[in-house]
Amino acid sequence: MTTVQETAAVRYGIWVACPAAGAAAGWGLKLAAGWITTLEWFPFQGVFELVTDIPEPWATLAALAVGAVAGFVFASFWASEMMSVEVSPSRITLHKDDKTFGFGREEVESAFADGKQLVLLSPSGTELARETSDLSRARLERAFTEQGYRWRAADPFASEFRMWVEHAPELPADVNALFTARRKAIAKYETAEAAELAREIRKRGVSVRDEKKRQYYRCER
Predict the structure, then answer these.
(1) Per-residue DSSP letters for 182-205?
(2) H helices within the chain, ranges in order?
(3) Residue in 158, 178, 171, 184 with CA at minimum distance from that of residue 219
């Protein structure tokens, strides 16, 4: 079995780098608080005025602590969105968003990378999975080919995708409703929710991909 995942430096480094960067940002904002209060047009004046009223060293300690906590929260989100892929001659398993998706060898006809997305196709052309990650395309290709899977250079059905518009006539009402909900999630940068809605759409026999916040779909065969 071959496992493709982020390097150890990334997986563990974010827990140090993100809180450190957050603490540095908090400290920088604390230093700039006095100057910001002189800018009448700048929003949240009350917050910065409050910061300038806190005596030292508590103001600095508070800024460092708040920034570090914010960095830790960011690292948690980043870690949850990382994907790892396990490829064996009999099965492919994806781990992402605290979820696990498994596919037997007979279910997978081929795989390819569409930008930052790993896509798995069934023998009928159905998209089994389309998941976003920062994993190396070359490492993914090597993992699949070494385990005997077909790796495609590009999406063989790319020309069949069409842009989704509200109440698309060829789609069932429940699928259009999912696309509408997903459009709202994308607008709010709720990536995990958008990914989950895409999985629900895919279960209904419709492939979905994004280009610059626009949704495109393909009715599967």
Answers:
(1) HHHHHHTT-HHHHHHHHHHHHHTT
(2) 8-36, 45-53, 58-81, 137-146, 173-187, 191-203
(3) 171
SS3 151: strand
Long-range contacts of 187-190 (CB under 8 A, 24+ apart): 187/213
Query: 18-49 burial string, b = 16+ CB within 10 Å, else e?
Result: bbebbbebbbebbeebeebbeeeeeeeeeebe
Average pLDDT, consecutive stretches of 10 residues, N- to C-terminus, the chain (221 residues): 81 83 84 75 74 76 86 79 90 89 94 95 92 92 95 94 93 96 93 91 93 90 63
Q: Please name the residue that has the structure tokens 């989704």.
A: 164
- pTM reported for the whole predicted model: 0.74
**Integer Cα distance of 210 and 202 in angstroms:** 14
| Distance separating alpha carbons of residues 140 and 117, to the nearest angstrom | 11
> Tens digits of per-residue pLDDT, 187-209?
998 888 999 999 999 999 999 99
| Whole-angstrom distance, CA of residue 15 vs CA of residue 12 | 6
- Helices and strands (H and E) in the chain: how many: 6, 10
CB 149 within 8 A of CB 109: no
> Which residue is it, tokens 């059905």?
157
CATH number attached to the domain at 83-151: 3.30.720
User: CA 58 to CA 36: how far, in whole Å?
Assistant: 19
CATH 3.30.720 in the chain is located at 83-151
